[in-house]
Amino acid sequence: MDEFLSAAIGFPAVLFGAALVVIVCFWLLVLVGAAGHDSFDADLDTGPVGLGGVPVAVSVSLLTVFAWFGSLTGTVLLRQSDTGSVTRAVLAVAVLAGSLLLAWAAVRLLVHRFRRFFPAEPPPSRLDFVGSVCTIRTGTVTATFGQAEVVSRDGSTAIVQVRRAESLPPSGPGAEDAPLVMGGTGLLYAYDEDGEFFWVASYDAALDPGPNA
Predict the structure, then answer these.
(1) Exposure of 187 in the CB half-sphere (CA atoms within 13 A)
(2) CA-to-CA distance for 137 and 57, rounded, in angstroms?
(3) 150 and 134 in contact (C-beta within 8 Å)?
(4) pLDDT digits (tens, 9 = 90+) for 152-191
(5) What is the 3-state secondary structure of 31-50?
(6) What's this model's pTM, rounded to 2 decimal places?
(7) What 8-state DSSP symbol labels residue 140?
(8) How far apart are CA 57 and CA 7, in angstroms?
């Protein structure tokens, strides 16, 4: 037991041990709902190193576990060998590099086998905003000018170009009393790919029949 603890807090196993503690804390946060398993997917791309196709947190967690186990095993074997301090230091660096290489190979093999269980989500599209309610951010909206703020599915906001059809009839009682001016509410009902803007109409929440209509 003492030999195991000594190896665990020794170089290089201690490096992966510290990372393993962070990984465990992260998955505890995921378990209680304080974080998502895909929290780092937008910040880190593991595709170039052959680990793409699964959430980044999954591949990094597996890489850390395998690297820690490999470095711990190598450290124990190294401490049992009869080598000098200089040679042992060089071999410790080799254990560090070898653990990372073997862990990467093992995780790459697992990812290749299990990536089909993590279907890729379609990339975000401006068409996702069609049907969304927006807030006008320019003094007015015409057939040639206008901007609005819209909230995406992940809670972030975006400023989009909007236009209003001059011939569009009122959408209901009181629609003419809700002009598309700054601070007003509009409905993005179509997207013009050539002009890269959304068609917008006045929107009144009181006229929304709700999802059960």
Answers:
(1) 14
(2) 38
(3) yes
(4) 877 788 899 999 987 554 444 444 445 688 988 999 999 9
(5) HCCCCCCCCCCCCCCCHHHC
(6) 0.54
(7) B
(8) 26
